[in-house]
Write a structure and sequence with these properties.
Length: 513
């Protein structure tokens, strides 16, 4: 047996260096803190927002985004103040807050947003009430776009308080879409971006642009809440354009405060005196005309007026043959002729109802000498032609009588030196659309309404608002059968609790074992 004392002994253990371990731990914590601070700094200044909602409900439309980045807002010296006085319990609070924050973010500091809860911030609520003279009893947003520190409101001769033209209010109920069914008023949609953008434009401009609607020459249906006239009025209202009825008969000239003229589905032809009034207005710098035509026999004098500016409405009906069946629903493709259609360029659209073709004399030398430039906006799709004998038997394309493609369904005209930046603002503008049925709420399509809104903004020299507009959110009903509802109830009331009980029993049994 060996002697334990003779066995070799190992090296003695090194003493624990507590100072070294402590120093290393402190350095690791310091480096971790510096890394976290650097990451937070980078994330705060360099980040990308991603809207993961199904319909991108928190992403602003291209037209709103363009307007927020335009010089109209970016060139302001004083930012626009937004005060969002909403209760957190409001059903619209989160959605409106997210939209308002997106407006403030994209404005690059030109919109200063303040969120006030009247129930939680009583002191600030009293300050806002005193400053604007408004009781915050309802959820609302105050937009203050005053360029100076003048009074918020004034009093008229009757003692009524009138807000400054650049101060606008948005009540929460204005953003909701209501319908009445079975004597009950229910919320069926949300149009927050429409209202916010419209009020923003109105607060900056201080007033609505006035467009004269030639009521005595138009025959658009205005009966009921869902009439084409109401649709046109609402579309223009969201663009901060006030459509006011005017009788052309008896006028010596278009009023000076009118910034545009709308002629929709003309029923009666112009007299010589009325034509002279229109021509005088058209030759005035910065004039704007919106002409919506019905197909068929275009009124002779109106047709001559349009032809003199390079757009001739043809006496035909745009149709095609689909499986030997006549298809009167006209399809077209947006062109990239002008800036306000660049967001639509290449996209297809559909015009329900009746549509006629337009001859557009683009680049005609005689028109260029007069500084008149017609441009096609919507070109008819392949397979369509202009039928001159619509309603007859054995309808087919006749090369000698019918209008062969290519042709247009909508066009515009500029009069003046539109390509010269020095005189571009003084040019006259006209938009002609050979269809009026797209205004019918039963046949309206989003791209056509966006195109109409962009056309109006182009006429009003607001190119930054042109493009694809916001989408109103709607509520949807999920159709379920009684058997499906019963199954869902059984799952919620019995199967899910039973599954949780079994899972808990299994875990308890395994731990006991």
């Amino acid at each position: 047996m060996s002697d334990p004392s003779s066995e070799p002994q190992g090296k003695p253990a090194r003493p624990l260096n507590r100072w070294g371990l402590g120093t290393l731990s402190v350095l690791q914590i310091a480096f971790l803190a510096v890394t976290l601070i650097a990451l937070n700094y980078l994330a705060a200044h360099h980040f990308t927002r991603v809207d993961l909602s199904r319909e991108a409900v928190y992403t602003l439309s291209p037209s709103t985004t363009n307007y927020l980045k335009d010089k109209v807002l970016g060139g302001r010296e004083k930012p626009i103040k937004w005060i969002m006085a909403f209760r957190r319990s409001s059903p619209f609070y989160e959605r409106v807050r997210a939209l308002a924050e997106e407006y403030a973010r994209l404005s690059d500091g030109k919109i200063q947003l303040e969120i006030v809860d009247p129930l939680r911030s009583s002191d600030r609520t009293q300050e806002v009430t005193a400053a604007y003279g408004l009781p915050l009893s309802k959820d609302l947003i105050i937009m203050d776009a005053r360029a100076d520190d003048g009074p918020v409101s004034t009093e008229d001769k009757n003692g009524n308080r009138i807000l400054h033209p650049n101060v606008k209010l948005i009540v929460a109920d204005d953003m909701a879409v209501y319908t009445t069914a079975d004597s009950q008023r229910k919320i069926t949609g949300f149009q927050g971006e429409d209202v916010l953008t419209a009020r923003l434009v109105e607060s900056i401009e201080g007033r609505a642009r006035k467009m004269a609607f030639l009521a005595d020459k138009s025959r658009i249906d205005s009966e009921g809440e869902n009439s084409p006239a109401k649709s046109l009025l609402d579309t223009l209202r969201f663009q901060n354009v006030d459509l006011q009825g005017v009788n052309l008969s008896g006028l010596a000239e278009i009023p000076a405060d009118v910034e545009g003229v709308a002629l929709v589905a003309p029923k009666y032809d112009l007299t010589d005196a009325e034509l002279a009034v229109l021509e005088k207005y058209w030759t005035t710098p910065r004039s704007a005309m919106l002409v919506l035509l019905e197909p068929g026999d275009t009124l002779p004098k109106l047709r001559a007026f349009l032809r003199g500016n390079g757009i001739t409405p043809r006496r035909d009906r745009v149709i095609s043959l689909l499986d030997k069946r006549i298809d009167t629903t006209a399809r077209g493709i947006f062109t990239a002729g002008v800036d306000f259609t660049k967001d639509f360029a290449g996209q297809a659209t559909v015009f329900e109802g009746a549509t006629s073709s337009l001859e557009v004399r683009e680049g005609a030398e005689d028109l260029m000498n007069k500084q008149v430039n017609p441009i096609g906006l919507i070109q008819a799709a392949d397979g369509f032609w202009g039928e001159t004998k619509f309603g007859g038997k054995d309808t087919a394309f006749d090369e000698k009588e019918d209008t062969k493609p290519p042709f247009h369904l909508a066009a515009c005209v500029t009069r003046g030196a539109a390509s010269d930046d020095r005189f571009a603002a003084a040019t006259s503008r006209m938009v002609v659309i050979a269809n009026t049925d797209f205004l019918d709420p039963k046949q309206r399509r989003a791209e056509n309404i966006d195109f109409l809104a962009s056309s109006v903004n182009w006429l009003m020299d607001r190119q930054s608002l042109a493009g694809i507009g916001p989408r109103s959110l709607a509520t949807y009903k999920l159709p379920l059968l009684d058997a499906q509802v019963s199954f869902i109830n059984r799952v919620n009331l019995f199967f899910l609790p039973a599954f949780l009980i079994l899972a808990g029993a299994f875990v308890w049994s395994s731990r006991r074992a």
